[in-house]
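Posting this for the archive.
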Amino acid sequence: MKPELLQHSQIPKPLHGLAPRVIKGQDWWDVTRQKAYASTNYHCAACGVHKSQAKEHQWLEAHEDYVIDWAKGSLTINKIVPLCHYCHNFIHSGRLWMVNKDNPDKIKRVLEHGIKICEDNFISVQHYTLDLADKYDVEHYCGVLKENITECAEWSEWHLILESEKYYTKYKDFEEWKKNYES
């Protein structure tokens, strides 16, 4: 198990829509994610649950394990890892909220699941995830993960690194990004 996966930062806005499955295509993605699932004998890499025992959906989802360099504007994909639906949604708490605004019970269940794993493993949680937990009255006793971002790259410098290749943002600026997500 690698519960620290639950500490991943949100994908920086300039890199939204620039996922490995988009870059490499569906065939590459299907092969890669099936290898990831098999690599843990079909258990979630964060919480350890077998896919047959996972909450809500009895399958695994592929997640990019990555490192962000805020100063250089790079997001480097280390590998693809299998996660249960709840762990994956916990990491992407912004998306969790956007997709499930009308389903507060699901938001609470996902947050409770992820926070319990973090508390059981004595790891801190991203501040925006704890803000969401507060909004939905989910108790938590874990610490807040402090990201020490002192310098941040310009929008146009942001790139994703996958298999040693660089892929640059598809949005020229924040306004273009915003317009895409508002439509």
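The mean pLDDT is 93. The radius of gyration is 17 Å.
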